[in-house]
Amino acid sequence: MRQIYPVMKHFEKIGSPQKIEERVYRLSHHVMTLSVTEGVLLYHKMTGEMLLLTSGEWGTAHADGALKSELIKRWFLVPEDFDEYELSMKIREIAAILTPKKPGINSFTVFPTTDCNARCFYCYEKGRRRQSMDEKTALDVAAYIRRVSAGQDVQLNWFGGEPLYNSKAIDIICDELTHAGVPFTSRMISNGYLFDEETVKKAVGQWKLHKVQIPLDGTEETYNRAKAFICKEGSAFKKVLGSIDLLLDAGVDVVIRMNVSRENAWDLERLAGELHERYRGEKRPGIYCVLLKEFGNKEVGCYEDAAKGVRAYERLGSRIVELGLGHIDRIRRDIPMNRCMADSDRSVTVLPDGRLGKCEHESEEKLIGSIYDDEVDAGAVSAWKERIFVPECRTCLFAPTCIKLKACAWNKDGCSEADRELMRVVLRQSILSEYKKQVKKQLSDDEI
Description:
Elements: E1 2-5, H1 9-14, E2 25-27, E3 31-36, E4 39-44, E5 50-53, H2 55-59, H3 66-73, E6 77-79, H4 84-98, E7 107-110, H5 135-148, E8 154-158, H6 167-179, E9 184-189, H7 197-205, E10 209-215, H8 220-227, H9 236-249, E11 253-260, H10 265-278, E12 286-291, H11 306-322, E13 347-350, E14 355-357, E15 369-370, H12 378-383, H13 417-447
Parallel strand pairs: 7-8, 7-13, 8-9, 9-10, 10-11, 11-12
Antiparallel strand pairs: 1-5, 2-6, 3-4, 4-5, 13-14, 14-15
Helix pairs in contact: 5-6, 10-11, 11-13
């Protein structure tokens, strides 16, 4: 038996070796096993530990002996009737108590506008009011950020609509914060179409922009059809690729998001090949893929057969990693205290008229207040923290670290088997990626 990853810090502080008793033991519900050339990997979602057993060891793991005792002590084997769910929830509660709380809000997702120059078929903002932030509101937003950030470094996240459709508001907010001595950096989610040399230069120097996420939904013909830009001058696909080049040359981190639907899954694999050819040098974007599903009550090209969608996602994810362009989510080394910005006390969204929310995807619903009020709606804030529990949670692999929010439109059907299978795909990719890194590191150390 060989340890690949040690126990995560939270469990190391809170947990202790399991006592060995004269009982019937089984593999923990929170353990994923994966076969590799060298044997079998065991990754424990509750403790964070990863072990490698040879095929021979795995075959005799449940037999009496030193190996079985070790696996019991490390919680990989547990008594047949043991309630692991209760233990994992207690560990999470204690971890929350031990995690220091910081004052103030330091993350602001700002909508300079809800208008956009694209008409994506899957946009969750279809039918919503298009409005832009005026100069007075931009000044008030900057004042609000100064007031509630409690002297901390601030992270600005520009969202929309298309944020560059109202870059004047971005200018005002950044200038005001700079003059007030508020330290900040910014990121942006953009379709990339409106970036040019002058805008990129301003973004780096004035907005302190360090990261941009840009969606590419297929090769040229597929992309141009999916985005349906209102501007018809030339190829939007080529224009956006040019924007990506400008941003990379300026030192901005670019992440390309591939939205996988039944219409474009195979085409995205072709796109991955094209991007591999285009970005062979040091400056290259990162790529990740997301499986589109119904958002709210809107059909967005999701798979009628969820399993087919998951397989398409898995195939594309493996392809972009194989080409050296994609990235795999790293295995968490702690217990998450919140799901995302929506249930975090340190994040808010700011609409063009100054109203405040908790989720960028629920920009017109479940609002919590305004930049002009000193108090927020405590009930609305609490509603975002309510979590989903389904019967399958009690024996679920992901229970120790999983958080799903009831208020989230993505979770309107609770937690389905398709959701869990997608999570298993992501975890398998993460485990194999981390294992390969460890093997590579060991080989390098052996050479030294």
